[in-house]
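Good morning C.,

I know you're traveling, so I'll keep this short. The sequence:
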Amino acid sequence: MTSTVTDLVVMLDHDFPMAWAEPWDRVGLRVGDGRASVHGVFVTLDPTEEAVEKTAAAGANVLLTHHPPFLEALDEVTGSSTAGRVVLSAARRGVAIVAMHTNLDRAPAGGDALAEGLGLSVLRPLERSLQEVDIVTVYVPVEAEAAVRQEMIAAGAGRIGQYEGCAFVGQGSGGFSALEGASPRVGEADGAEVAEKRVEMIAPTGRGLAVVDAARAVHPYEEPVITVARGGLSRGVARLGRLCSTTPTSLAGLASAVSERLSTPVRVWGDEGTRVRTVAVANGSGTSLIGAAREAGADALVTGEVRYHDALEALGSGLAIVEAGHDATEWPLVRVLARAARRAVGDGAVIEDEVHLAWWSRGKGE
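The tokens, ready to paste straight into the viewer:
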């Protein structure tokens, strides 16, 4: 089991690679000492002062959240800002803060969380976007290919979704003629031709050179041919799902189910009698996914919030919308984080926060 905060972060990075996060995001260990032993992990949605206090009161020293404590760099850490107070409170109590944000959104388990929480059968990601990656290509003698590839994997290459060690391998022959002073380790000095393999693997942006160094360290050639190029890898976000019922329900029925499963009031855009079978879901803000939901043929989009005029436009195109609140649609992610933490530190060391919303509503006449 995990012994230090850094060990925990490494295991979480395996489940939700931080390289999948948006460039503007701040994920991983944001506050605290990575060398500290883990005494317990408190898992919740937001890193608030209250959450820090709950962590310490539970005898834990790691606060694991979806949202990071800050997104902009802090010019100062004082009590004059909310983020500063959270950092100071955590430091005083010896609590480390670890965030898994947009990398969790892009992870398969994170993407499925809301749809599964609503009882939908997941069909596919709602939208795919390209994320920049480094593509490392190396030409290596056949007998050395396995060792070179293993070192590339150890350096961070080859992870695609829930698969590790992904590589394209092709076979051919490499030829060379050594100049005076060269010291080839394979073949003769003049006109050598060697059976080789071409190995291509992707790596997170910025890790390409580290993968090159790892491959070079075990490559048998004095001057191996290794290249790095920039490419794009398709990542799925949000989900398209289908009601498990054999017959369509009404929009009113869908809204009631969402409200019950997420324990929150909902706002509905559309005629309550509209028949619904295929549902797009997006935790948090779903405005940017309205177009993808329409193109996917969804009858309704369930999300945290959308902008007013975008909701009107969606209605005009035949897409109903159910807004359940940003945080309500993201609490299912807390369960995903808690499961990962339990695998890392054991069941007894993880405390999962109870679902609670940062807002409340008041009905007419109350």
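Safe travels,
E.
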